[in-house]
Design goal:
Elements: H1 3-13, H2 16-19, E1 24-28, E2 32-37, E3 44-45, E4 49-50, H3 52-71, E5 77-86, E6 95-104, E7 108-117, E8 123-133
Antiparallel strand pairs: 1-2, 2-6, 3-4, 5-8, 6-7, 7-8
Amino acid sequence: MTSYPLQQALSDLFAPWVQALNLKVEHVAADSVTLRLPQSDQLSRVGGMLCGQAMMAAADTAMVLALINHFGAFRPCSTVQLSSTFMRPLSGQDALVTARVLRAGKAMAFGEIDLAGADDGKSVFKASTTYALM
């Protein structure tokens, strides 16, 4: 799957507040999708640090796109679990959000997400996810 259908999915399938994150598809591989989360004052808290809520929303969104890429089409799904670890703050740069499908069966899918600074490449957030496939 190319990045165009995934970019289109962001506007077709997600709520307006998710679209307001301004995520852009950066890279698509067989088992993963990388999105760019642009640095924004609207997504930052005191000190210009990217807020955790934006990281979690971007991570969840990236995994849905990774599942679309994996299956070749959108399959309705619901987040069952998203376990996140915030390792350090991110400020003054965009974030790259890479979601990787670890396993996807008929009823459940599992994945992992890494969010890193786009300029320095340092990981700031990691998550593991479980989705129910409908």
